[in-house]
Design brief:
The protein is an alpha/beta fold. The protein folds into two domains: about 5-170, 3-Layer(aba) Sandwich (Peroxisomal Thiolase, Chain A, domain 1); about 175-325, Thiolase/Chalcone synthase (Peroxisomal Thiolase, Chain A, domain 1, 3-Layer(aba) Sandwich). About 35% of the residues lie in helices and about 25% in strands. The strands form four sheets. Strands 1-7-6-4-5 form a five-stranded mixed β-sheet, sandwiched between helices. α8 (about 220-240) packs parallel to α9. The longest helix has 22 residues, at about 220-240. Bound molecules: oxa(dethia)-CoA.
Length: about 325
């Protein structure tokens, strides 16, 4: 069976930087608290005229350029996002149009911070079974548009950005070795956007109740995140008869430095085995893993044959891991 191999990566971060010191002027917080509790120093915020599809297109164009692939050659586009331009149509369709990827089927995956890993696992299936030849998988978010900028529990955490990969179905040992996806919908209320879907349609009273904004019970999410990120990483390693020592670089969802340190410790990873950029990007939800991957790739930190792992956790709850050989 063919494997889905990443042949190009790309990313895009909006220009505007929002530092912890900027946040000190907006809510009752301080740089010391944010740095100590999250490891985040700054995050990027999209310009008013930038949409999620714009960020996604820029990341995709970078990835296509690296892969040496034209938009017309792409036959599948999957975007992991929870902050698409519209509730519908999908952001993937908008990206398909802006790129001129006229031969591609396109849809979004809604798995919150696990969106990229879920989208990647879906695309891998289409590539492995011969249904698709070249796919574009994108994680793109403008979380700043669904953040309550008066809620210090959440507004300090999130940032905007996009990351993308071009995948090709190839014979051989390189590519995605396995994907492991999980969900537990019983925790949906711990991390969600209450309005405005079918349960709470748009209303003035809904705005007064701040329903359109992200809601998170941070402490409870934290504990489940550490356990799930660890469990699914072990599951992926065991499925491939590997140990954490075999992993050249692990790309976790960049949620919070303390979560990542706890997972690193439990997995017994050496310094340098886990790629972390939460300090400068914050939590960009579905965009965080492909953003980090592209950063590391462009720094020359990944070589042919390296074993990589993506490890994600997010609202739903959803979680998942991908193990691949570069
Ligand atoms: O993307 C995937 C899902 N998301 C996550 O994985 C996020 C998981 N959760 C977290 O990252 C952390 O729970 C937070 C960073 C959100 C919060 O950190 P924490 O260590 O769990 O803090 P806490 O919620 O237990 O709050 C401790 C104290 C509280 O004060 P009291 O009640 O002890 O007096 C909060 O009111 O810190 C207070 N606090 C703040 N203080 C200054 C909460 N936010 C802030 C703030 N600045 N921004």
């Amino acid at each position: 069976m063919k494997k889905a191999r990443i042949i190009g990566t790309g990313s895009y971060l909006p220009e505007k930087v929002l530092t912890n010191f900027d946040l000190e002027k907006m809510v009752e917080t301080n740089n010391e608290w944010i740095t100590a509790r999250t490891g985040i120093q700054e995050r990027r915020i999209a310009a008013d005229d930038e949409m999620t599809s714009d960020l996604a297109v820029k990341a995709a164009q970078n990835a296509l350029e690296m892969a040496g692939v034209t938009a017309e050659e792409i036959d599948l586009i999957i975007v992991g996002t929870i902050t698409g331009d519209f509730p519908w149509p999908s952001t993937a369709c908008l990206v398909q149009n802006k790129l001129g990827a006229v031969n591609a089927a396109a849809w979004d995956v809604s798995a919150a911070c696990s969106g990229f890993v879920y989208a990647l696992a879906s695309a891998a299936q289409y590539l492995q079974n011969g249904h698709s030849k070249k796919a574009l998988v994108i994680g793109a978010e403008i979380l700043s548009r669904i953040i309550d900028w008066e809620d210090r529990n959440t507004c300090i955490l999130f940032g905007d950005g996009a990351g993308a990969v071009v995948l090709e179905a190839q014979e051989g040992d390189h590519g995605i070795l396995s994907s492991h996806l999980h969900a537990d919908g019983s925790h949906w209320q711990l991390l969600y956007q209450p309005g405005f879907g079918a349960r709470h349609p748009a209303s003035v009273s809904g705005i007064e109740q701040r329903l359109p904004f992200l809601h998170m019970a941070g402490n409870e999410v934290f504990k489940v995140a550490v356990r799930s990120l660890y469990d699914v990483a072990i599951e992926a390693l065991e499925a491939n008869q590997m140990t954490a020592k075999d992993v050249h670089l692990l790309f976790p969802h960049q949620a919070n430095r303390r979560i990542l340190d706890a997972v690193k410790k439990r997995l017994n990873l050496e310094d340098g085995q886990m790629y972390i950029n939460v300090d400068l990007c914050g939590n960009t939800s579905g965009a965080s893993i492909p953003l980090a991957l592209d950063e590391a790739n462009r720094k020359g930190m990944i070589s042919e044959g390296d074993v990589l792992m993506f490890d994600a956790f997010g609202g739903g709850f959803t979680w998942g891991a991908t193990l691949l050989r570069w």
